[in-house]
Amino acid sequence: MRIVTWTIRLAAFLLLLAFAAKNADPVTLRLFFDLSWQLPLVALLLAFFAAGVLFGLAAMLGPLLRQRRELGRLRREDLAAAAVAAPVPTQPPAAES
Fold first, then answer.
1. pTM of the full predicted structure?
2. Which value, to the nearest 10 degrees, does the dihedral of the CA atoms of residues 4, 6, 8, 9 take?
């Protein structure tokens, strides 16, 4: 199974490398106020992909932290309920000598 996984990873890497090599031509990114940048297309695609990943992670951060906080609260409640419900151990009667 490892060989299949590494073969797929290698194929994906080679496809992305070929894509990057074919799209190395410079493009002009025109911004506001006549500001423009000229950079390779693959760099521009990578930058926008990375920005999308960062925005996605930032969007997930709030719900993730909320769930972790709730999970901690539920675990504390469970431990407290288990401590209350646990029988109190008693000492066995002393043996007569």
1. 0.59
2. 160
